């Protein structure tokens, strides 16, 4: 069980960032383009609020953007969940939509619940907004007002569109994600942080976030392994992942003791 204040960067808050915004992909892309790889948490405050790298019109909107980004991603390079997203986003900007999706999914209970509906849709099937609102009510009965459910449904639909699971501006149709080596590696890394290992990682919801089938996932992971992003060993039915090159000694010790 992950702690309330998690050393790896997860959140156990009952209300996720999608209560207010989508996963703010455009803002994250702007940050990756404008800010360096090596920084600390305070640098984001400086860049977003003081230097206005997101080009927001008012001081209030800058502060709100920072707050929402922290809710969604943590924005703390000292924590593995965000640190590796930031590192891999700089390595391959085209992977950033899926990187953001995986991180936001790991931190947001409403986004996680919404995927249960999205993944049941057939290719090309339209996602009805009202169906998502009902689905959120089922997962969190009596918790949200009608207006909140409508807003949250719109936010998660936008996130699933940026993340490659839906397509269309008005009518959102189901599409299937296509993994890139870097986003596939990050999905496995985040699942690994939660305690999943081996085959359970390949069959996890984290895998389903970036790939529609095992074959394309393993192809992407083989390329990621060749690039040194992870160590992947496969023999018969045994699969082993090693992410020690992405973790600090303290994080490795925490994972060993926790799982």
List the helices and strands and how they pair.
Elements: H1 25-34, H2 41-50, H3 59-73, H4 80-91, H5 96-107, H6 109-118, E1 126-127, H7 129-139, H8 146-162, E2 166-167, E3 172-174, H9 181-193, H10 198-202, H11 205-210, H12 214-226, E4 231-235, E5 238-242, H13 249-258
Antiparallel strand pairs: 1-3, 2-3, 4-5
Helix pairs in contact: 2-3, 4-5, 4-9, 5-9, 6-7, 6-8, 7-8, 9-12
Offer a quick outline of the entry.
With 259 residues, the protein is mainly alpha-helical. It has helices at residues 25-34, 41-50, 59-73, 80-91, 96-107, 109-118, 129-139, 146-162, 181-193, 198-202, 205-210, 214-226, 249-258; strands at 126-127, 166-167, 172-174, 231-235, 238-242. The mean pLDDT is 95.
Descriptive notes:
By secondary structure, the chain is mainly alpha-helical. It folds into three domains: 21-91, no CATH class; 109-174, Orthogonal Bundle (Arc Repressor Mutant, subunit A), CATH 1.10.10; 181-258, Orthogonal Bundle (Arc Repressor Mutant, subunit A). Helices cover 56% and strands 7% of the residues. It has helices at residues 25-34, 41-50, 59-73, 80-91, 96-107, 109-118, 129-139, 146-162, 181-193, 198-202, 205-210, 214-226, 249-258, and strands at 126-127, 166-167, 172-174, 231-235, 238-242. A three-stranded antiparallel β-sheet has the order 1-3-2. The protein starts with 24 loop residues before the first helix and ends with a helix.
Brief descriptors of the model:
single chain, 259 residues, mainly alpha, Arc Repressor Mutant, subunit A, 3 domains, three-stranded antiparallel β-sheet, two-stranded antiparallel ribbon, 13 helices
